[in-house]
Protein backbone atom coordinates (compact mmCIF):
# COMPACT_ATOMS: atom_id res chain seq x y z
CA UNK A 1 0.00 0.00 0.00
CA UNK A 2 1.32 3.43 -0.95
CA UNK A 3 2.12 6.09 1.65
CA UNK A 4 1.58 9.84 1.38
CA UNK A 5 3.06 12.37 3.81
CA UNK A 6 1.99 15.95 4.44
CA UNK A 7 4.92 18.20 5.36
CA UNK A 8 5.38 21.94 5.83
CA UNK A 9 6.19 24.63 8.34
CA UNK A 10 3.88 25.32 11.32
CA UNK A 11 0.36 26.66 10.77
CA UNK A 12 0.13 26.15 7.03
CA UNK A 13 -3.02 24.00 7.35
CA UNK A 14 -1.60 20.46 7.24
CA UNK A 15 -3.91 19.07 9.89
CA UNK A 16 -6.97 20.65 8.29
CA UNK A 17 -5.98 19.16 4.95
CA UNK A 18 -5.26 15.81 6.63
CA UNK A 19 -8.80 15.73 8.01
CA UNK A 20 -10.32 16.67 4.65
CA UNK A 21 -8.36 14.03 2.75
CA UNK A 22 -8.80 11.24 5.26
CA UNK A 23 -12.54 11.74 5.57
CA UNK A 24 -13.31 12.61 1.97
CA UNK A 25 -13.94 9.10 0.69
CA UNK A 26 -13.48 7.49 3.73
CA UNK A 27 -11.26 5.35 5.83
CA UNK A 28 -11.52 2.37 8.11
CA UNK A 29 -11.14 4.55 11.17
CA UNK A 30 -13.90 4.39 13.76
CA UNK A 31 -13.44 4.70 17.50
CA UNK A 32 -13.32 1.44 19.41
CA UNK A 33 -14.48 1.44 23.05
CA UNK A 34 -11.60 1.26 25.49
CA UNK A 35 -8.92 2.02 22.92
CA UNK A 36 -6.92 5.22 22.83
CA UNK A 37 -6.05 6.04 19.25
CA UNK A 38 -3.05 7.79 17.76
CA UNK A 39 -4.40 9.96 14.91
CA UNK A 40 -1.08 10.81 13.23
CA UNK A 41 -2.04 8.69 10.24
CA UNK A 42 -5.11 7.33 8.51
CA UNK A 43 -5.90 4.76 5.87
CA UNK A 44 -7.67 6.51 3.01
CA UNK A 45 -9.92 4.87 0.42
CA UNK A 46 -10.47 7.08 -2.62
CA UNK A 47 -12.28 5.66 -5.65
CA UNK A 48 -10.29 2.53 -6.63
CA UNK A 49 -7.22 3.53 -4.62
CA UNK A 50 -6.10 3.01 -1.06
CA UNK A 51 -3.16 4.66 0.68
CA UNK A 52 -1.81 5.61 4.10
CA UNK A 53 -1.85 9.34 4.84
CA UNK A 54 0.57 10.76 7.42
CA UNK A 55 0.24 14.12 9.14
CA UNK A 56 3.46 15.64 10.48
CA UNK A 57 4.45 18.46 12.77
CA UNK A 58 5.53 21.81 11.40
CA UNK A 59 9.26 22.23 10.73
CA UNK A 60 10.79 25.34 12.29
CA UNK A 61 14.52 26.01 11.92
CA UNK A 62 14.63 27.69 15.33
CA UNK A 63 17.15 25.62 17.30
CA UNK A 64 15.04 24.19 20.13
CA UNK A 65 14.76 20.64 21.44
CA UNK A 66 11.11 20.28 20.47
CA UNK A 67 11.82 21.46 16.91
CA UNK A 68 14.60 18.90 16.59
CA UNK A 69 12.23 16.14 17.70
CA UNK A 70 9.59 17.29 15.22
CA UNK A 71 12.14 17.23 12.41
CA UNK A 72 13.06 13.64 13.33
CA UNK A 73 9.40 12.68 13.00
CA UNK A 74 9.15 14.42 9.63
CA UNK A 75 12.22 12.55 8.40
CA UNK A 76 10.55 9.29 9.40
CA UNK A 77 7.53 10.20 7.29
CA UNK A 78 9.68 11.25 4.34
CA UNK A 79 11.62 7.98 4.46
CA UNK A 80 8.40 5.94 4.49
CA UNK A 81 6.47 7.98 1.92
CA UNK A 82 6.03 7.30 -1.79
CA UNK A 83 4.53 10.76 -2.42
CA UNK A 84 5.05 13.90 -0.35
CA UNK A 85 2.59 16.79 -0.33
CA UNK A 86 4.50 19.95 0.59
CA UNK A 87 1.86 22.27 2.07
CA UNK A 88 2.60 26.00 1.94
CA UNK A 89 0.58 29.00 3.12
CA UNK A 90 0.01 31.41 0.23
CA UNK A 91 -1.55 33.87 2.66
CA UNK A 92 2.02 34.53 3.78
CA UNK A 93 5.17 35.11 1.77
CA UNK A 94 7.88 32.49 1.23
CA UNK A 95 10.17 32.28 4.27
CA UNK A 96 13.28 30.54 5.60
CA UNK A 97 11.36 27.52 6.87
CA UNK A 98 9.83 26.90 3.45
CA UNK A 99 13.25 27.07 1.83
CA UNK A 100 14.74 24.71 4.43
CA UNK A 101 11.98 22.13 3.84
CA UNK A 102 12.34 22.49 0.07
CA UNK A 103 16.06 21.66 0.37
CA UNK A 104 15.20 18.55 2.41
CA UNK A 105 12.67 17.40 -0.16
CA UNK A 106 14.90 17.99 -3.18
CA UNK A 107 17.44 15.61 -1.58
CA UNK A 108 14.96 12.82 -0.77
CA UNK A 109 14.37 11.70 -4.35
CA UNK A 110 10.61 11.25 -3.86
CA UNK A 111 7.71 12.61 -5.89
CA UNK A 112 6.77 16.03 -4.47
CA UNK A 113 3.46 17.85 -4.91
CA UNK A 114 3.39 21.45 -3.69
CA UNK A 115 -0.07 22.29 -2.32
CA UNK A 116 -0.56 26.07 -2.49
CA UNK A 117 -2.97 26.28 0.44
CA UNK A 118 -5.35 29.05 1.50
CA UNK A 119 -5.62 30.16 -2.10
CA UNK A 120 -9.04 31.68 -1.34
CA UNK A 121 -7.32 34.48 0.61
CA UNK A 122 -6.79 37.76 -1.28
CA UNK A 123 -3.12 37.92 -0.17
CA UNK A 124 -2.51 34.60 -1.90
CA UNK A 125 -2.81 36.24 -5.30
CA UNK A 126 0.31 38.23 -4.45
CA UNK A 127 2.34 35.53 -2.71
CA UNK A 128 1.58 32.33 -4.60
CA UNK A 129 4.06 32.93 -7.42
CA UNK A 130 6.95 33.18 -4.94
CA UNK A 131 6.58 29.47 -4.18
CA UNK A 132 7.32 28.51 -7.78
CA UNK A 133 10.89 29.64 -7.03
CA UNK A 134 11.31 26.44 -4.98
CA UNK A 135 11.83 24.53 -8.21
CA UNK A 136 9.36 21.65 -8.01
CA UNK A 137 7.49 20.30 -11.02
CA UNK A 138 4.00 19.71 -9.57
CA UNK A 139 1.89 22.46 -8.02
CA UNK A 140 -1.83 22.65 -7.18
CA UNK A 141 -3.87 25.49 -5.71
CA UNK A 142 -6.17 24.40 -2.89
CA UNK A 143 -8.09 25.54 0.16
CA UNK A 144 -8.12 22.85 2.83
CA UNK A 145 -10.53 24.82 4.99
CA UNK A 146 -13.09 25.28 2.21
CA UNK A 147 -12.34 21.98 0.41
CA UNK A 148 -11.45 23.75 -2.83
CA UNK A 149 -9.61 21.38 -5.20
CA UNK A 150 -9.28 18.67 -2.53
CA UNK A 151 -10.66 16.04 -4.92
CA UNK A 152 -8.30 17.30 -7.63
CA UNK A 153 -5.42 16.89 -5.15
CA UNK A 154 -6.50 13.29 -4.49
CA UNK A 155 -6.55 12.67 -8.24
CA UNK A 156 -3.03 14.06 -8.51
CA UNK A 157 -1.75 12.03 -5.54
CA UNK A 158 -3.13 8.74 -6.87
CA UNK A 159 -2.40 9.22 -10.57
CA UNK A 160 0.38 6.59 -10.56
CA UNK A 161 -0.99 4.37 -7.78
CA UNK A 162 -2.08 0.82 -8.55
CA UNK A 163 -5.81 0.22 -8.27
CA UNK A 164 -7.18 -2.02 -5.55
CA UNK A 165 -7.50 -5.48 -6.97
CA UNK A 166 -9.13 -8.58 -5.58
CA UNK A 167 -6.79 -11.53 -5.30
CA UNK A 168 -7.36 -15.25 -5.46
CA UNK A 169 -4.37 -15.94 -3.24
CA UNK A 170 -5.60 -18.67 -0.89
CA UNK A 171 -2.58 -18.62 1.43
CA UNK A 172 -3.28 -17.57 5.00
CA UNK A 173 -1.23 -14.48 5.82
CA UNK A 174 -0.39 -13.52 9.38
CA UNK A 175 1.74 -10.70 10.72
CA UNK A 176 3.64 -10.22 13.95
CA UNK A 177 2.85 -6.74 15.23
CA UNK A 178 3.97 -4.89 18.33
CA UNK A 179 6.41 -2.41 19.74
CA UNK A 180 10.10 -2.46 18.79
CA UNK A 181 12.28 -5.02 20.58
CA UNK A 182 9.50 -7.29 21.84
CA UNK A 183 10.86 -10.23 19.84
CA UNK A 184 8.88 -10.13 16.59
CA UNK A 185 11.77 -11.23 14.36
CA UNK A 186 12.91 -13.85 16.86
CA UNK A 187 9.41 -15.31 17.02
CA UNK A 188 9.12 -15.31 13.22
CA UNK A 189 12.40 -17.20 13.02
CA UNK A 190 11.26 -19.61 15.74
CA UNK A 191 8.03 -20.38 13.87
CA UNK A 192 9.90 -21.06 10.64
CA UNK A 193 12.60 -23.13 12.32
CA UNK A 194 9.91 -25.19 14.05
CA UNK A 195 8.35 -26.07 10.72
CA UNK A 196 11.69 -26.56 8.90
CA UNK A 197 9.75 -26.29 5.64
CA UNK A 198 10.51 -22.84 4.26
CA UNK A 199 9.48 -22.69 0.62
CA UNK A 200 10.76 -19.26 -0.38
CA UNK A 201 11.32 -15.66 0.61
CA UNK A 202 9.50 -12.95 -1.33
CA UNK A 203 9.94 -9.20 -1.21
CA UNK A 204 7.19 -7.58 0.84
CA UNK A 205 5.30 -4.47 -0.14
CA UNK A 206 6.43 -2.91 3.14
CA UNK A 207 9.90 -1.43 2.84
CA UNK A 208 12.56 -3.46 4.69
CA UNK A 209 10.16 -6.35 5.37
CA UNK A 210 10.27 -9.89 4.05
CA UNK A 211 7.28 -12.18 3.64
CA UNK A 212 8.14 -15.83 4.14
CA UNK A 213 6.05 -18.66 2.72
CA UNK A 214 6.01 -21.98 4.56
CA UNK A 215 3.95 -25.16 4.78
CA UNK A 216 2.10 -26.46 7.81
CA UNK A 217 0.13 -29.71 7.54
CA UNK A 218 0.21 -29.43 3.73
CA UNK A 219 -1.23 -25.89 3.82
CA UNK A 220 0.64 -22.76 2.75
CA UNK A 221 1.02 -19.79 5.08
CA UNK A 222 2.75 -16.43 4.74
CA UNK A 223 4.34 -14.88 7.80
CA UNK A 224 4.91 -11.11 7.68
CA UNK A 225 7.60 -9.84 10.02
CA UNK A 226 7.06 -6.15 10.76
CA UNK A 227 10.22 -5.68 12.82
CA UNK A 228 12.19 -4.83 9.68
CA UNK A 229 13.89 -1.68 11.07
CA UNK A 230 17.25 -2.02 9.38
CA UNK A 231 18.32 1.62 9.73
CA UNK A 232 20.61 1.03 12.70
CA UNK A 233 22.50 4.27 12.28
CA UNK A 234 19.44 6.45 12.62
CA UNK A 235 18.39 7.78 15.99
CA UNK A 236 14.66 7.34 15.38
CA UNK A 237 14.57 3.56 14.98
CA UNK A 238 12.65 3.02 18.22
CA UNK A 239 10.20 5.92 17.95
CA UNK A 240 6.58 4.90 18.53
CA UNK A 241 5.07 6.38 15.40
CA UNK A 242 7.58 4.60 13.16
CA UNK A 243 6.64 1.16 14.48
CA UNK A 244 2.94 2.05 14.32
CA UNK A 245 3.27 2.93 10.66
CA UNK A 246 5.05 -0.33 9.87
CA UNK A 247 2.41 -2.29 11.76
CA UNK A 248 -0.42 -0.55 9.89
CA UNK A 249 1.06 -1.57 6.55
CA UNK A 250 1.47 -5.18 7.67
CA UNK A 251 -2.05 -5.31 9.14
CA UNK A 252 -3.51 -4.32 5.78
CA UNK A 253 -1.94 -7.37 4.11
CA UNK A 254 -2.79 -9.86 6.85
CA UNK A 255 -5.66 -12.21 7.57
CA UNK A 256 -4.61 -12.65 11.21
CA UNK A 257 -2.45 -10.42 13.42
CA UNK A 258 -0.32 -11.70 16.29
CA UNK A 259 0.14 -8.99 18.91
CA UNK A 260 3.49 -9.59 20.62
CA UNK A 261 3.88 -8.48 24.24
CA UNK A 262 7.21 -8.67 26.07
CA UNK A 263 6.57 -10.15 29.51
CA UNK A 264 9.64 -8.45 31.04
CA UNK A 265 8.72 -5.04 29.61
CA UNK A 266 5.02 -5.31 30.47
CA UNK A 267 1.98 -3.82 28.75
CA UNK A 268 2.25 -0.32 27.30
CA UNK A 269 -0.31 2.06 25.85
CA UNK A 270 1.32 1.62 22.46
CA UNK A 271 0.29 -2.06 22.48
CA UNK A 272 -3.32 -0.88 22.56
CA UNK A 273 -2.65 1.65 19.79
CA UNK A 274 -1.25 -1.02 17.51
CA UNK A 275 -3.91 -3.66 18.10
CA UNK A 276 -6.71 -1.10 17.70
CA UNK A 277 -5.81 -0.82 14.02
CA UNK A 278 -6.09 -4.58 13.60
CA UNK A 279 -9.54 -4.49 15.25
CA UNK A 280 -10.73 -1.65 13.02
CA UNK A 281 -9.42 -3.46 9.96
CA UNK A 282 -11.47 -6.51 10.96
CA UNK A 283 -8.49 -8.85 11.30
CA UNK A 284 -8.29 -12.01 13.36
CA UNK A 285 -6.20 -11.50 16.50
CA UNK A 286 -4.05 -13.69 18.75
CA UNK A 287 -2.05 -12.34 21.71
CA UNK A 288 1.45 -13.80 22.21
CA UNK A 289 3.40 -13.16 25.42
CA UNK A 290 7.08 -13.60 24.66
CA UNK A 291 9.84 -14.69 27.11
CA UNK A 292 7.73 -17.42 28.69
CA UNK A 293 11.02 -18.96 29.92
CA UNK A 294 11.25 -16.10 32.45
CA UNK A 295 7.81 -16.80 34.00
CA UNK A 296 6.69 -19.16 36.75
CA UNK A 297 3.09 -20.41 36.82
CA UNK A 298 1.89 -17.97 39.47
CA UNK A 299 3.31 -14.99 37.55
CA UNK A 300 1.82 -16.36 34.33
CA UNK A 301 -1.68 -16.45 35.86
CA UNK A 302 -1.31 -12.91 37.18
CA UNK A 303 -0.07 -11.63 33.83
CA UNK A 304 -2.96 -13.29 32.03
CA UNK A 305 -5.38 -11.48 34.37
CA UNK A 306 -3.55 -8.23 33.68
CA UNK A 307 -3.89 -8.72 29.91
CA UNK A 308 -7.62 -9.38 30.23
CA UNK A 309 -8.01 -6.23 32.32
CA UNK A 310 -5.91 -3.99 30.04
CA UNK A 311 -7.37 -5.45 26.84
CA UNK A 312 -10.96 -5.77 28.04
CA UNK A 313 -12.07 -4.85 24.51
CA UNK A 314 -10.42 -8.08 23.25
CA UNK A 315 -12.08 -10.88 25.25
CA UNK A 316 -12.27 -13.05 22.12
CA UNK A 317 -8.49 -13.11 21.48
CA UNK A 318 -6.70 -16.17 22.83
CA UNK A 319 -3.48 -15.68 24.82
CA UNK A 320 -0.44 -17.91 24.27
CA UNK A 321 2.71 -17.74 26.40
CA UNK A 322 5.73 -18.51 24.23
CA UNK A 323 9.50 -18.25 24.20
CA UNK A 324 11.39 -17.43 21.04
CA UNK A 325 14.59 -18.37 22.84
CA UNK A 326 13.66 -21.87 24.03
CA UNK A 327 10.93 -22.52 21.39
CA UNK A 328 8.46 -23.22 24.21
CA UNK A 329 4.85 -23.36 22.89
CA UNK A 330 5.92 -22.24 19.41
CA UNK A 331 4.02 -25.24 18.03
CA UNK A 332 0.75 -23.70 19.33
CA UNK A 333 0.99 -20.55 17.21
CA UNK A 334 0.04 -21.74 13.72
CA UNK A 335 -2.99 -23.80 14.90
CA UNK A 336 -4.22 -20.68 16.72
CA UNK A 337 -3.73 -18.60 13.56
CA UNK A 338 -5.71 -21.18 11.61
CA UNK A 339 -8.54 -21.11 14.18
CA UNK A 340 -8.77 -17.29 14.07
CA UNK A 341 -8.74 -17.36 10.26
CA UNK A 342 -11.46 -20.01 10.00
CA UNK A 343 -13.67 -18.18 12.52
CA UNK A 344 -13.16 -14.90 10.68
CA UNK A 345 -14.50 -16.60 7.54
CA UNK A 346 -17.30 -18.48 9.31
CA UNK A 347 -20.74 -18.38 7.68
CA UNK A 348 -23.75 -18.97 9.91
CA UNK A 349 -27.09 -20.27 8.71
CA UNK A 350 -29.88 -17.69 8.80
CA UNK A 351 -32.21 -19.92 10.83
CA UNK A 352 -29.49 -20.51 13.45
CA UNK A 353 -28.78 -16.78 13.70
CA UNK A 354 -32.43 -15.91 14.16
CA UNK A 355 -32.92 -18.60 16.80
CA UNK A 356 -29.96 -17.23 18.80
CA UNK A 357 -31.09 -13.61 18.60
CA UNK A 358 -34.73 -14.48 19.31
CA UNK A 359 -33.77 -16.43 22.43
CA UNK A 360 -31.41 -13.65 23.58
CA UNK A 361 -34.18 -11.07 23.10
CA UNK A 362 -36.66 -13.11 25.12
CA UNK A 363 -34.16 -13.70 27.93
CA UNK A 364 -33.41 -10.00 28.26
CA UNK A 365 -35.57 -7.30 26.75
CA UNK A 366 -33.78 -4.11 25.64
CA UNK A 367 -34.33 -1.03 27.81
CA UNK A 368 -37.22 1.22 26.85
CA UNK A 369 -36.68 4.84 25.91
CA UNK A 370 -39.50 7.39 26.16
CA UNK A 371 -42.01 4.59 26.13
CA UNK A 372 -40.50 2.88 23.09
CA UNK A 373 -38.60 -0.40 23.01
CA UNK A 374 -36.31 -1.90 20.40
CA UNK A 375 -37.85 -4.74 18.40
CA UNK A 376 -35.70 -7.15 16.38
CA UNK A 377 -37.50 -8.72 13.41
CA UNK A 378 -34.77 -10.85 11.86
CA UNK A 379 -31.00 -11.07 11.29
CA UNK A 380 -28.85 -11.91 8.26
CA UNK A 381 -25.13 -12.47 7.83
CA UNK A 382 -23.88 -10.04 5.20
CA UNK A 383 -20.16 -10.75 4.97
CA UNK A 384 -17.05 -12.43 6.41
CA UNK A 385 -13.53 -11.29 7.41
CA UNK A 386 -14.86 -10.36 9.89
CA UNK A 387 -18.37 -11.81 10.19
CA UNK A 388 -20.89 -9.00 9.72
CA UNK A 389 -24.50 -9.37 10.82
CA UNK A 390 -27.38 -7.04 9.95
CA UNK A 391 -30.29 -6.92 12.38
CA UNK A 392 -33.53 -5.46 11.02
CA UNK A 393 -35.34 -3.52 13.75
CA UNK A 394 -38.18 -1.08 14.32
CA UNK A 395 -35.79 1.82 15.08
CA UNK A 396 -32.00 1.63 15.12
CA UNK A 397 -31.96 4.76 17.30
CA UNK A 398 -33.24 2.60 20.17
CA UNK A 399 -30.09 0.42 20.19
CA UNK A 400 -28.15 1.03 23.40
CA UNK A 401 -24.44 0.23 23.47
CA UNK A 402 -24.88 -2.17 26.39
CA UNK A 403 -27.50 -4.13 24.45
CA UNK A 404 -25.19 -4.27 21.43
CA UNK A 405 -22.57 -5.91 23.66
CA UNK A 406 -25.17 -8.26 25.14
CA UNK A 407 -26.19 -9.51 21.69
CA UNK A 408 -22.57 -9.86 20.62
CA UNK A 409 -21.83 -11.95 23.72
CA UNK A 410 -24.85 -14.18 23.04
CA UNK A 411 -23.63 -14.81 19.49
CA UNK A 412 -20.19 -15.72 20.79
CA UNK A 413 -21.67 -18.05 23.41
CA UNK A 414 -23.47 -20.02 20.71
CA UNK A 415 -21.07 -19.79 17.76
CA UNK A 416 -17.34 -20.48 17.64
CA UNK A 417 -15.93 -17.02 16.95
CA UNK A 418 -12.70 -17.10 18.96
CA UNK A 419 -10.00 -14.87 17.53
CA UNK A 420 -12.16 -12.68 15.31
CA UNK A 421 -14.01 -9.41 15.80
CA UNK A 422 -17.63 -9.37 14.66
CA UNK A 423 -19.75 -6.47 13.45
CA UNK A 424 -23.44 -5.95 14.23
CA UNK A 425 -25.25 -3.48 12.03
CA UNK A 426 -28.78 -2.33 12.80
CA UNK A 427 -31.16 -1.26 10.03
CA UNK A 428 -34.73 -0.10 10.16
CA UNK A 429 -36.99 -2.68 8.54
CA UNK A 430 -38.58 0.13 6.52
CA UNK A 431 -35.19 0.70 4.83
Indicate the topology.
Layout: E1 2-7, H1 14-24, E2 41-46, E3 49-55, H2 65-80, E4 83-89, H3 96-108, E5 111-117, H4 124-127, E6 139-141, H5 150-157, E7 172-177, H6 184-195, E8 198-203, E9 210-216, E10 219-225, H7 240-252, E11 256-262, H8 269-280, E12 284-290, H9 297-310, E13 319-321, H10 333-344, H11 350-363, E14 368-369, E15 372-373, E16 376-383, E17 388-393, H12 401-414, E18 423-428
Parallel strand pairs: 1-3, 1-4, 4-5, 5-6, 7-10, 7-11, 11-12, 12-13, 17-18
Antiparallel strand pairs: 2-3, 8-9, 9-10, 14-15, 16-17
Helix pairs in contact: 7-8, 11-12
Ends apart, CA distance between termini: 36 Å
- Helical content band: 25-40%
Radius of gyration: 24 Å
Record field, number of beta strands: 18
Structural class, judged by helices and strands? alpha/beta
| String of helices and strands | EHEEHEHEHEHEHEEEHEHEHEHHEEEEHE
The main β sheet shows up as: 7 strands, mixed
Uncertain stretches of 5 or more adjacent residues: 24-39, 195-209, 228-238
Strand order, sheet with most strands: 8-9-10-7-11-12-13
Task: Report the total helices.
Answer: 12
Per the principal axes of the C-alpha atoms, what is the gross shape? globular
The chain-level mean pLDDT equals 83
Strand content: 15-25%
Characterization of the model:
By secondary structure, this protein is an alpha/beta fold. The chain has helices spanning 14-24, 65-80, 96-108, 124-127, 150-157, 184-195, 240-252, 269-280, 297-310, 333-344, 350-363, 401-414; strands at residues 2-7, 41-46, 49-55, 83-89, 111-117, 139-141, 172-177, 198-203, 210-216, 219-225, 256-262, 284-290, 319-321, 368-369, 372-373, 376-383, 388-393, 423-428. A seven-stranded mixed sheet has the order 8-9-10-7-11-12-13, sandwiched between helices. A six-stranded mixed sheet has the order 2-3-1-4-5-6, with helices on both faces. A three-stranded mixed sheet has the order 16-17-18, covered by helices on one side. Helix 7 (240-252) packs parallel to helix 8 (269-280) and helix 11 (350-363) crosses helix 12 (401-414). It is globular and about 70 Å long. The two termini are 36 Å apart.
Amino acid sequence: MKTVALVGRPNVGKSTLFNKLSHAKISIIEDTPGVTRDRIYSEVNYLDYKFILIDTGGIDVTNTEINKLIEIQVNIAIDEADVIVFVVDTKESLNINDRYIADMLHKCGKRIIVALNKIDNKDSLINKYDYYELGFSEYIEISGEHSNNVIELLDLITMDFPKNETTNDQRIKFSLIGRPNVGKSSLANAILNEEKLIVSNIAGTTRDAVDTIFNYNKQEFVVIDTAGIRKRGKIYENIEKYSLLRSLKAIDRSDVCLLIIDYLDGIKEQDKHIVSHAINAGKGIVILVNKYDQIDNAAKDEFRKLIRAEFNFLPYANIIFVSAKTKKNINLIVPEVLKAYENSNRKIGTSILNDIIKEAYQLKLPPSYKGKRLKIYYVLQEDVQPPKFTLYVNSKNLVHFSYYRYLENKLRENIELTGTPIVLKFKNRSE
